[in-house]
Structures are given as structure tokens and as C-alpha cells.
Amino acid sequence: MSTNISYHNKDIISKAFADSFGEKSLKVYGLNLPKIVRLLPTNLPAFGANELRMDNLFELEDGSLAIIDYESSYEEADKLKYADYIVRVLKQRGMKARLRMIVIYTADIEPSQVKRTYETPCMKITIEAAFLSRLNSAEIKSRLTKKVLSGERLTDEELMEFIIFPLTFRGKDEKRKNVKEAIDLAKKVSDNKISTFLVSGIVVFADKVIDSDTSRSAKEWIRMTQVARAFEEEKEQAVREVEARMAAELAEAKAKMAEAQAEAAITKYKMAETKYEMAETKVKMAETKAEMAKLLVKSVENAAKAFNLSIDDVCDKMDYSKEDYEKAKKLMSGAA
């Protein structure tokens, strides 16, 4: 049974993996490289009927491209495969592309087994190698398991350890066993986005050792998780839209209430203004009455003096009652 993932399935998994791979570093594998910007397509231009697909192609922060291959055995002839990758990437990306050829060796290979340079008079190929045999499999697995089960958040470095640790075990059977266990553990991470990244990353990195049932199951889980996440995102979007509409309606209601309050305040002000004007008119009328009373009293008193008459006689002759005179005098004294 073939252990490689079909191209269609690998595309689904690679896309899920690529969505969260930006800004990650390969430093935990012993590779001193710039951070990864994004995952690039791995299908290469065909020469004749010969199509070739490498394990991974990354764009790094410094603009260079990193071709990454995973090996569980060492053959000097593999460098011919790497040369083929390099030629096809240059054909695809252009001769100015700056390439790095990186090989990550599983725990089955020790550094002493690997010759990093192949040289012939017309060409020289140098690989940058990472050896997973240098990593402490049991310690990484125990530490990551403890953090996941306790609900602790994994750091970026731990995420990168997580997707590679199944390959730090020796032998295909042990790797397959740990691939399944790592996937099961990754599914327990509460953050769906991180969980999907881990499952897809394990499948991508363990492509050459994972069994088809495990890869198919992982792909189906990723697909269902993406569907569930899409549903949740749609639900959250619907809630946000309802909340936004309610907020807009509330703001509109508040604006109308404020407008009504402003109109009421204006009406109240106008009423107060009218009352003031009425009061002012009353004052003026009172002042006018006082002036008239003053004129009446003076005219009566002046007539009494001029004609040497009593007040009563003057009032009779001027057709005023004594009562009107007294009222006028009282009003005049009140105004004074």
C-alpha cells in the first residue's frame, strides 16, 4: 500500500497548513534561516512526460526560496533529485531566484552519514541539513502532551516541534505510531485554527511515512473542521450584523429622543419668553395707569388751588368721583 498522499488530498492539506504557516521559524530543527513568509506550490514544470513534485517550497523573509525535502535514508544519488528540483524551480521562478536546498533527516540518519556537498567540474550542490536525531523525542512528546492536556497555549517554537516530533523516532513503525498519536493529540487543542495547523503540518511533514488510512482520516477531519469553522464564522458574522443593526436602531432612537427633547426645550423656552413679554406688558400697563393717576391727581389739586375750591367741588365739576380721586392718589403713592 502506498504511503504517499494523493496530489488532490495533499493540496487540501497543504492549503490548511499554509494558512497558518507565515512567520514561523525552522530554528527548532537546527536550521538558522530567515522566518518563513509563505508556503508555495510544490508541483514543478514537467520535462517531457516526467512530472516532479518536491516535499515543500517556502518563501523566506529575505526573499530567498527554500526547497525542503524529508529523508529517512541517505543516498548520495539523492543529490541528483535535488539538482532536478533546483533546475525546475529556476525554470519556474526565473534564473534570478535565490535558492536554498534543505534536507531534514529523520532520526534514522546521523550527521556522520551525510555528505553535504556534491561537486563536479561544471556544478556544485550544497545542502543545508537538519538532523532530527539530535532532538530528544521522549522529552518533546511528554512536554507537548502535558501542555495540550492542561489547556496551555503552545508557543510558535512548540508548534514547529509538534509537527516534526513523530519523525524524531527511529524506524517506520515507530514513526507511524507517533504520527497517529500526534494527530490525536493535536485534535485536542482547543483552538481550531491551531489544531488544524498541527494536523495538516504533521501530515505534510510525515508524507513519506504516514499510512493512507491515517492521512485520509486526517484530511477528512480537516475538511469537517473547516466546514464547522466556516459555519461558526458565518454565525458570528450574522450575530455581528444583528448587533450592528440593533446598535444602529438604538442610536437612531436615541437621536430621535434627543431631537424631541431639544424641540421640547425650545418650546419651553418660547413659552418662558412669551410669559416674560406678557409680564413686561403688564408692567408697562401698570406704569401707564400710574402716570394717568398722577395726571388726574395733579389736575384736581391744581384746579382746587387755582379756583380756591375744595377737592370735592373740583371732582364734581370735573365729573370725577371722590372715590376715583382717592384711588388715583393711592395708585400714585404706590407707584412712587
Walk me through what this model shows:
This protein is an alpha/beta fold and 336 residues long. The protein folds into two domains: 7-210, no CATH class; 236-335, no CATH class. Helices cover 58% and strands 13% of the residues. It has a five-stranded mixed beta sheet, with helices on both faces. The chain has a two-stranded antiparallel ribbon with strand order 2-3. Strand 7 and strand 8 form a beta hairpin. The longest helix is centred in the C-terminal third of the chain and has 96 residues, at 212-307.
Summary tags:
alpha/beta; single chain; 9 strands; disordered N terminus; 336 residues; two-stranded antiparallel ribbon; 5-stranded mixed sheet
* Total DSSP E strands: 9
Unreliable residue runs = 1-10
Percent of residues in helices: 55-70%
Number of domains as seen in the coordinates: 2
Q: What is the end-to-end distance?
A: 123 Å
Question: What is the typical, i.e. mean, pLDDT?
Answer: 82
Taken as a percent bin, the fraction of beta residues is 5-15%
Please state the structural category: alpha/beta
Strand arrangement, major sheet: 1-4-5-6-9
Structural shape = rod-shaped
Q: Helical segment tally? A: 9
Helix-strand pattern, N to C? HEEEEEHEEEEHHHHHHH
Main sheet properties: 5 strands, mixed
- Radius of gyration, whole Å: 48 Å
